[in-house]
Design brief:
The chain is mainly α and about 90 residues long. The protein contains 3 helices and no strands. It has one domain.
Amino acid sequence: MDTPEKAVGSIIQFFEKLITDFSWRRLGFVFGFLAFVGVALFIYESYTHSFTLARLNREVELLEKVMALEPVPARRSPWRLTKETR
């Protein structure tokens, strides 16, 4: 099995060849692969709603933390105008 360095090197080499030895076949492969990944993510999200669910869970956790905070009275700013100083 290849090491991660070799795998990354082969990916970089593929994209380098795409630029230096341009062919429509390579370009079509790249676009096809990106389309496949996009469609796969769309299908995965439409069936599982995991991305949406994870985002909503984070929002609920943050709201629970905010609600658990005790209100602290704000200090009056010495620069704030009061009725007496107007």
